[in-house]
Specification:
Radius of gyration: 21 Å
Cofactor: pyridoxal 5'-phosphate
Organism: Thalassovita taeanensis
Enzyme class: transferase
Number of domains: 2
Pfam family, one: Aminotran_1_2
CATH superfamily of the largest domain: Type I PLP-dependent aspartate aminotransferase-like (Major domain)
CATH architecture of the largest domain: 3-Layer(aba) Sandwich
Strand order of the largest sheet: 2-8-7-6-5-3-4
Order of helices and strands: HHEHHEHEHEHEHEEEHHHEEHEEH
Largest sheet: 7 strands, mixed
Shape: globular
Helix content: 40-55%
Protein name: Aminotransferase
Number of strands: 12
Distance between the termini: 57 Å
Oligomer: single chain
Length: about 400
Amino acid sequence: MRLSDRITHINGGGSDGWGVFYRARAMKAAGTNVTELTIGEHDIPTSPDILTAMHRAALAGHTGYASVPGIPALRDAVAARVQARTGVSTTRDNVLITAGGQAALFAAHHAVCDPGDRALFMDPYYATYPGTIRANGAVPVPVLTAPADGFQPRAEAIAALASRARSLLINSPNNPTGVVYSDDTLAGIARVVQDHDMWLISDEVYDTQVWHGSHLSPRALPGMAERTLVVGSMSKSHAMTGSRLGWIIGPQPAIAHLIDLATNTNYGVPGYIQDAGLFALNQGPATEEGIAAPFRRRRALALDILSRQNILHAVPPEGAMYLMLDIRPTGLSGEDFAYRLLDAHHIAVMPGESFGQAAAGHIRIAMTIPDAPFAAALEQLVAFATELTIPA
């Protein structure tokens, strides 16, 4: 029987970019000790206090159908958090609770794109972006950024592709590059979006992980609140990746229709998980800062190690839990470097090519293991790159 083109073409007929990761996991399953610097998974578990709140809510009976838009108290808490962080008036009517940030990305594109519409996104990109767009029946159109620009998007590059586009997806702080978009960059993006009457989908799941400068939500810019859908999540801010708890922030009419979509897809997020999320948010900013602290610390460790050599160059790591390294001086592609590093030293990193054309010749390192083994792995990686670069 024939399956739909929409589902069989989610990956565009090519690789999903996770080959090195899959090999590393196969090696681990076979008993090899592999140092994984691949995915954005905290090395600390979800707080026992949050899990206790989740357990208590489940035992209290919040295991039946929950309110599809999200329980009112959680929507209020998310709205208050967003308003406090961005300065934009936000109420529960601007909030839909979703099954994590990925579900929010899917729903946001479903809200603004019809089948066949052009949907722009920045390259480098998080690996699921083009597949999410294809799964909605839209046409993914990458907008290339450049290492020479620090991977900051150029407004003119977006404008050149904006004709007949319905949406633009951005991500700051950025995965995979660690770049935080500047105020000038975001102003240029807002100008193009308004000039071409597009929706902006702003993925802000790393908004608590800013190491240099500050995070500006484009929803806060003049004229942008009515055309911006913000994707948020508790995965990164509260180490709750497996809880699958996220949200969309947007204008009330869009949220009302997104609630209809939620009613006809997953029918809401389990109530006991929402209760745990409410408990976590009520712990305040200090908890979020504590979750982010290890990545700030490992960034400093990495920059110190890299400062002692001149072969590998880091894209300025301004935010998020990743480090993007330019490995082109070795003469290898990011994919070749990653496979050779894995086979020779059992260190797994993600090739830049997994995240699009613009990141070719780079690797992404997740700063997601404890400090000492992280530093040791990075020093081994630097030594490996030196061996490749300096002839015997």
